[in-house]
User: Fold PRA1 family protein from Porphyridium purpureum.
Amino acid sequence: MPAPGYAAIGEGSAMEGVYQYGDEGKAAPAAGGYQSMPGNVKDAVSAMMKDVKIYTEPIQPGSEMSLKDRVVVVWESARPWGEFFRPSAMNKPPAGEMGARFSHNVETFFYNYVLLAVLFLVSMFFIHPIATLSLCVCGAFAVYAYVLHPEPIEIGGRVLETPAKHIAMAVLAGIALLFGHMGGLIVSLAVFLMVVVGLHAVFRDHAEEPQV
Assistant:
């Protein structure tokens, strides 16, 4: 039976590929390894991410999971925070192991990164409330239109099909970008995730045994 914090709700087959472990229970590096980093940053990221397999059912708009189940799965799929922040597991990776380490850690700690992004947005509400509210309104509309009601919805006697939903979402996002200054918040979130995910995924030793 999986330890608390490691399990996720849903069919077992859906979780296959989230964590890759070798015969001895240790994390297995990506096939082939990585001997050198490409010179181009885009190529480097693509090379590290090509073998990553992540269970994304809870955050897919078209998923049939309920909103409550999505929240529970995201929370329970995150690894224990003591394991995430363990100082003894942080070290500089050998050059040939960097790609495999990055790929494994993105798979393993993906939902920890998701929760950190949510925490970042909550903290930004006290710094940029209008931008945060604009993003929340867009997010709430997306959840309502694509998650809670993936089928056509009726508003004011008119039925909104999927193309109409896309148009409404685009108009709302455009207003939020122009008047809610949401663009700056999105850039800040992207930079935050690049720094946090990049540093943690590279320097967190994936070969260390997790402490259950």
